[in-house]
Amino acid sequence: MVRLATASLVGTAIEFFDFFVYGTAAALVLGPLFFPTFSPLAGTLAAFGTFAIGFVARPLGSVLFGHVGDRYGRRPVLFASLLLTGCATVAVGCVPTYETLGIAAPLLLLALRFLQGLGLGGEWGGAVLLTAEHAPPNRRALWASFPQIGPAVGFLLANGVMLALTAGLSDADFRSWGWRVPFWAAGLLAAAGLLLRSSLAETPQFEELSSSGRRASAPLAEVARDHWRLVLLTAGALAVGYAVFYTVSTWALTYGTERLGVSSTVMLTCVMAAVAVKGATTPFVALLADRWGRRPLCLAGCAASALWMFPMVALLHTAEPFLMFLGFLGSLLAFITMFAVIAAYLPELYEPRVRCTGAAVGYNLAGVLGGALTPIVATALSADGGSGPPWGVAAYLTVVALISLGCFALLPETLPEALPEPSEVVEGAPA
């Protein structure tokens, strides 16, 4: 389990490094480089628009790779998704700017961001199922939480490189070539991840499905027919997590640097410190889920998010580093109270034959609802130029949290029941 969990964590960290480095670049530099004819606000919105395309692609990736995972195994998904995301990320670092290619530059950026999202849409389902389906039932949440640490590690790697570059280079050098370095580094990371995953074994549950001939012939059709309500509920429930995380990690960087006049180095440091604490607490929250259940922790995280959004915005607006850190930390602790748990919770909600498709589609559809739109909506809501805190952003996030709270309330608890074995599942029955 240690080897499997480590491989899942490292691979997820690499994939999210690729994904997050684009978000940081969009917040700091892509607007003026690829949309120079726009106003600063419009350029930022356009850069966040290309950022959002990655989220739109993620459900499509979960459909594509979910089909592979349910038909041919969880293991092939881990290789194909990492290879696709790594290649697309390296290519982003090679795209000439608008000054060189004109309109073709942002179009290429858009296409490569789409491929990034496609690969990441498959990564989560494969990595989570690899650990969840190998784990003992009484520690499933703990072991399945390791891929959930990967996003924190990927974020720290991406922003650590960005922080070093912004601190060590002049602004002209960073805008000229420095921002490309993290994208090029993704190629080496992807190669290391593929090597680490080369010796992984297929999960016992998929092997039993395969040997008994009970694999789903059309996983997406089966999910749409038998589990559509569950997919919509899980997407709505998880939307707040994406909204909170990308408010802190993406929108806040732009707001702090452009509106509050805080240096990008200080903003990145505050966010990275909060993300580091969030990553460290993940397995401890998962242990609570193995003891007390999945649903109570998810409800608690949603409620905490709804209560904390106005204080978070107020603390951000102070432009004081320690207070901003406290605002970010409170938000991310509420976030991880939910997201440390869902790596075990979502697979337990679906029967094994369609688990890779169902869990991944619900998870990544939430990314569209909460992650793709939030930086754009938050930027628009905070664009009035007033001197006070952007309360519209806090109100928007609070509403999203309340909607997610209602969705979690409608989902069942899955503890202490173990994941159903393939032989225990009636074909075509709802999970």
Q: Can you give keywords for this protein?
A:
globular, 431 residues, mainly alpha, 80% helix
Q: Return the structural class.
A: mainly alpha
| Radius of gyration computed on alpha carbons | 21 Å
Order of helices and strands: HHHHHHHHHHHHHHHHHHH
Number of strands: 0
Give the count of helical stretches: 19
- The average pLDDT score comes to 85
Distance between the termini: 26 Å
| Biggest sheet features | none
Taken from the alpha-carbon principal axes, the silhouette is globular
Give the fraction of residues assigned to helices. over 70%
Low-confidence stretches: 418-431
**Share in β-strands:** under 5%
Give the gist of this structure:
The chain is built from 19 helices and no strands. By secondary structure, the protein is mostly helical.
What is the strand and helix layout of this fold?
Elements: H1 2-34, H2 40-72, H3 74-92, H4 98-101, H5 104-132, H6 140-144, H7 146-168, H8 171-176, H9 181-197, H10 204-212, H11 219-226, H12 228-259, H13 264-292, H14 294-317, H15 321-339, H16 342-349, H17 355-372, H18 374-381, H19 391-410
Characterize the structure shown:
With 431 residues, this protein is mainly alpha-helical. Helices cover 80% and strands 0% of the residues. The chain contains 19 helices and no strands. α1 packs across α12. It is globular. Residues 418-431 have low confidence and may be disordered.
